[in-house]
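Please, structure for the following, as tokens.
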Amino acid sequence: MGWSPQCRVSEVFRRDTRLLGMPFEIPDNLHPDCGPIAWLLGTWQGNGHGDYPTIDGFQFGQECVFTHDGRPFFHYFSRTWIVDDEGNKVRDAALETGFLRARPAGELEFVLAHPTGFVEIWYGEADGAKFELITDAVARTSSAKEYAGGKRLYGYVEGDLLWAYDMAAMGQPLQPHLWARLQRS
């Protein structure tokens, strides 16, 4: 049995997380609209890869955090750093922060801000232990690089958070840019 707005979030997700093998506890004050994405809560760390026609390929480390306070959204913060072939930190890289807003029936809105001078609004829908988001709007400062939009996929796979990000920027069409595998810490 999947998610339905009529079910109590604790009942549905205690049952569904066992079926999906998700070893985490649902907070008592979790807003019911956040039930479909409850598996994200916590701190995740791991490594990823990046590539794009306008840059050299690279590897990175990442930490991302999803928190909540009982309202129908999660606060999100991510920081990354470039690593060398041995996994040693070379330098700091991207930061982003925002709010993953849960709506009824698994609909999602993601509002993100970046220190590189742009903000984004994304829309998507939770589907079991995964969700996909597509950019609806991008606003840039006058000094930000050209960025048109993207697509993100997040999934809970074998106990890990896997994500991929396709980007359209710098005159390039939408194509793979970043992907990572993170473990709950």
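DSSP finds one helix and ten strands in the chain. Confidence is low (pLDDT under 50) at residues 1-19.
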